[in-house]
Specification:
- Helix content is about 45%, strand content about 10%.
- It is built from eight helices and three strands.
- By secondary structure, it is an alpha+beta fold.
- The relative contact order is 0.13.
- The chain has a domain of about 170 residues: Metalloenzyme, LuxS/M16 peptidase-like (Cytochrome Bc1 Complex, Chain A, domain 1).
- The longest helix is centred in the middle third of the chain and has 25 residues.
- It has a three-stranded antiparallel beta sheet with strand order 1-3-2.
Length: about 240
């Protein structure tokens, strides 16, 4: 039970107890996680598996397989693509900052290029996504369209190729502005009760219950230090390992 707002601690506890008395509840059985993510074994990578060449990282073959299945509703014209690029462990605070910066840089261009210019579909987004069953985080690009998923994947990869060049050509002033924008965003206080609840609920939903993470990061000055140490070549490396 989450209680947020102009409520004293003892009032929140009283409310919780009253709710439990009115709505009898019992602990859930010890079930394992429903959603899991498949990870490569420790120390394994697309390079060690022979899927990629170090000299030509763009030649990664991955698991280039398409599984087709009939759509239950033949009159449904829409398809959807969820494209995921792995960043790493979200408990690594330095990685969390750099991943958030890269996602911020990609977010608006993804919408402008894939939706506005290429008009692939009405729903287009690029954001950070927590992988199921572990503490991993990555970039997720979602496109809903009447075009097929294979074509959508090609357009997303073309977009990432374009953004690789864009970031390499980005001026120092533009990159500093991106870093300043991320710092302003993380320092921004919730505008309303709904935003405050959303921040707390994200911790409950993830299971980490680290409600003071943002405040602790800002007070430790780690955000400013890591943003200062973040350079464009770090972003380029992420693309080359895609």
């Amino acid at each position: 039970m989450l209680v947020v707002g102009n409520v004293y601690q003892h009032d929140a506890i009283t409310l919780a107890k009253m709710t439990e008395e009115i709505i009898p509840a019992s602990p859930l059985p010890g079930l394992g996680p429903v959603d899991l993510s498949l990870r490569l074994p420790e120390g394994m990578s697309p390079y060690s598996l022979g899927l990629c060449s170090v000299d030509s990282p763009w030649s990664c073959s991955g698991t280039n397989h398409v599984w087709s299945y009939p759509v239950p509703n033949p009159n449904e014209p829409n398809s959807v693509l969820t494209y995921y690029v792995h960043y790493g462990s979200k408990i690594d605070l330095r990685l969390r900052v750099t991943a958030a910066l890269l996602t911020q840089i990609l977010s608006e261009p993804a919408f402008n290029i894939l939706r506005t210019k290429e008009q692939l579909g009405y729903i287009v987004s690029a954001n950070m996504w927590n992988a199921h069953g572990d503490n991993d985080v990555g970039l997720r690009i979602v496109v809903q369209s009447e075009r097929g998923p294979v074509y959508l994947e090609e357009r997303v990869e073309a977009f990432l190729d374009l953004m690789k060049d864009t970031i390499e050509l980005m001026t120092d002033e533009e990159f500093v502005e991106q870093k300043s924008g991320l710092e302003r965003k993380w320092r921004e206080v919730p505008k309303n009760l709904n935003e405050e609840v959303s921040r707390f609920w994200a911790q409950i939903d993830s299971g980490y219950l680290d409600f003071l993470r943002r405040k602790r990061l800002l007070l430790s000055h780690s955000l400013r230090v890591w943003l200062k140490q973040t350079h464009r070549h770090r972003r380029r490396r992420v693309f080359e390992e895609r």
